[in-house]
Amino acid sequence: MVGGQVIGLNMLSKEKLIQGNEHRECLSRLIDQASQALKTWEVVLSTFLSPPEGVAAQTLFSQLTELKILSWGGYPQAERQRLAIARADLPLEVTQVELIALSIAGNFLFDPANHRDFLGAILGTGIERDQVGDVLVLGERGAQVIVAPRLEPFLVTHLTQVRTVPVQVEPISLDHLKVQAPRAKEMTTVEASMRLDAIASAGFGLSRSKMVNLINTGNVRVNWKDTSQSSYTLKAGDLITIRGKGRLEIGEVNITKKDRYRIHLKRLS
Predict the structure, then answer these.
(1) CA–CA separation, 68 vs 266, rounded Å?
(2) Which one of 51, 110, 233, 256 is most buried, by most CB atoms within 10 A?
(3) Per-residue pLDDT averaged across 90-101, rounded?
(4) How confident is the model at residue 100 (pLDDT cuts 50, 70, 90)?
(5) Where in the chain is the domain with CATH 3.30.70.330?
(6) Cβ(182)–Cβ(79) under 8 Å?
(7) Helices 24-40 and 51-61, axial angle in degrees (round to 10)
(8) What SS3 class is residue 140?
(9) Distance, CA of 266 to CA of 244 (rounded, Å)
(10) Per-residue pLDDT tens over the stretch 105-139
(11) Quick one: pLDDT at residue 46?
(12) Handedness of CA 110, 113, 117, 118 (dihedral sign)
């Protein structure tokens, strides 16, 4: 909104829309696709967006009332999702977000592979990261991956090995994805303030000094946005993520008789 007036895509330049955003390249592509959707009256699909890019995209399109978006990654909890972009007066549903699930089957009993191994093998075929959605590791049985449909024949032919294990790639229904619900641990902490370092330290079970170091080195995000301020003030509903350590949801916050903060936390891993 500019000067109290609802804005459309034509009223702001691309540079003004993406100014100061850390995901400028991604947003620039999305604006070009938004222009295409307006001109052609067709639904236009983005590549797969990471969670921080998805947050930036939501903020961008909240300013563009001529358009609407729908995000989908194959299942409700998917981290990496594609956007369907359309004029505001056109219908949108998840079936318009083109995705396909692939099974990567092999015997990993004696040479276990993790998420990085499967993703590395996929990217090693020459595919760009933004063409790949979530990778679901199934232990010794292999993995499942979500990609754009056009990549199916290429991966079936070219993805033949992960680590030392020969694999067979074939399409499967999205209904057959083996999605594991994240493990949740709920807890309550009482803190003198709503500082990021204090609450994250309690929620992730790390020392305050180690948490400060993680924040200072850019390993901590709040609501999928980078933050390097240990003193950042949190509020109920915020989400903290640390690479390799899962997520922490800030729940109900109450003030105690001694003017301290009693905070309900849920850690997902």
Answers:
(1) 32
(2) 51
(3) 96
(4) very high
(5) 100-176
(6) no
(7) 50
(8) helix
(9) 17
(10) 999 999 999 999 999 999 999 999 999 999 999 99
(11) 98
(12) positive
Would you tell me how many other CB atoms lie within 10 Å of the CB of residue 230?
Answer: 19
SS3 56: helix
Higher confidence at residue 65 or residue 167?
Answer: 167
Q: How far apart are CA 101 and CA 96, in angstroms?
A: 15
Q: Assign domain 9-95 one CATH number from 3.30.1370, 3.30.450, 2.60.40, 3.30.720.
A: 3.30.1370
Cα of first residue to Cα of last residue in the chain, in angstroms, is 38
Q: What is the mean pLDDT of the chain?
A: 92
Query: Which tokens sit at 269?
Result: 């891993």
Residue type, 168: Q
The type of residue at 180 is Q
Q: Which of 84, 121, 105, 87 is nearest to 8 (CA)?
A: 87
The two three-digit tokens of residue 86, written as one number: 């359309």
pLDDT of the residue at 2: 36
Q: Which of the following CATH numbers is that of domain 184-268: 3.10.290.10, 3.30.1300.10, 2.60.120.260, 3.40.50.740?
A: 3.10.290.10
The predicted model gives 8-21 an average pLDDT of: 70
Residue 255 confidence (pLDDT): 96
pTM above 0.70, yes or no: yes
CATH architecture for the domain at 100-176: 2-Layer Sandwich (3.30)
CA distances from 62 to 24, 68, 88, 126 (A): 16, 8, 12, 34
Is the separation of the CB atoms in 178 and 102 below 8 Å? no
Strands 142-147 and 165-166: unpaired
